[in-house]
Here is the input.
Amino acid sequence: MSRVMIDKDECGCIYVMEAPEVERVKIGFSTMSSLAGRFASVNGQSPVPVHLAFVFTVAARDDVRYLERRVHTLLKGKRIRGEWFCATVDEAREAILKAYENRTMQALVRRV
Here is the structure.
C-alpha cells in the first residue's frame, strides 16, 4: 500500500474568525501557509479585536472554494456583508461540516 504525501502548507482550509464584541464571524478560505498572514490582515483592518476560532483543513484546493461558497449559501440569511455573518462560531462550524458532508456524499454517488 502506498502512502500519499500531502503538503500541509498547501492544503486549503475554511476558517472562521470571530469578532465577539460585535457578535460577528468571518468565514473564508486560505491555504494553511498563508492563513497567519490572512488573519493578521483581517485583524489589522478590523475596528474590534478578531480571533481565529475554527479551521477546517481540506486536502484539495478545488474543494475548499466549493465548500466556502456552499457555507456562505447555507448561512445566507445571516450574512451582513461579504464574508461577515451575524452567526455564532458553532453555527459556522455546523455549516462547514454540513457542506463537507454533502460534498463527500456527492463524490460517493458519482463513484457508484
Remarks:
- Helices lie at 35-45, 61-74, 89-111.
